[in-house]
Amino acid sequence: MRVEWTEQSLADLDDAFAYIDDRNPEAAHKFFRGMFKAVKALSSFPEMGPLVYDLDPPGVYRQLVRGHHRVFYRVEQNVVLVLRVWDARRNPNAINITE
Q1: Are 90 and 19 in contact, with CB atoms under 8 Å apart?
Q2: Rg for the chain, CA atoms, rounded
Q3: Beta bridge partners of 85
Q4: d(CA 97, CA 75)
């Protein structure tokens, strides 16, 4: 299965990297590599992340949790579509998933 990142998810990842990099460049690179490795695993195991019920519509999206970040994605036929990379310490009501 192929993994695709939306523009929004890549922007989220870039923002998270920049935030961490300002404080600890080594940790930022570790975060970045770890995030890509975790998401890459979805190509073999697309349903490994549980369904998400705290977003509308409930049960449509899945998530990976890596550290303080939630990676929201959706599985379509032969594609895992990564939609958002969200810092779980932020207000969950502010998550806006657009496809």
Answers
A1: no
A2: 13
A3: 71
A4: 15
The number of beta carbons lying within 10 Å of the beta carbon of residue 47 is 10
Indicate the length of the chain as a whole number.
99
Q: Which two tokens stand for residue 52?
A: 């998400």
Peptide bond into 57 cis (omega under 30): yes
Whole-model pTM?
0.92
Domain encompassing residue 68 = 2-94
45 inside domain: yes
Inter-residue contact 42 to 80 (CB < 8 Å):
yes
CATH number of the domain to which 23 belongs: 3.30.2310.20
3-class secondary-structure state, position 62: strand
Task: Render pLDDT for 31-88 as a digit per residue (tens, 0 to 9).
Answer: 999 999 999 999 999 999 999 998 889 999 999 999 999 999 999 999 999 999 999 9
State the DSSP code for 46. Answer: T
